[in-house]
Amino acid sequence: MPTVSVYSMSGRKTSTLELSDAVFGIEPNVAVMHSAVINYLANQRQGTQSTKTRTEVSGGGKKPWRQKGTGHARQGSTRAPQWTHGGIALGPKPRSYRFALPKKVRRLALLSAFSSKVAAGEMLVLSKLALEEIKTKSIVALLAALKADNQKVLLVLPEKDEKVIKSARNIPGVKTALVNTLNVYDVLNCDKFIVVKDAVAQMEEVYK
Question: What is the pTM of this model?
Answer without folding.
Answer: 0.84
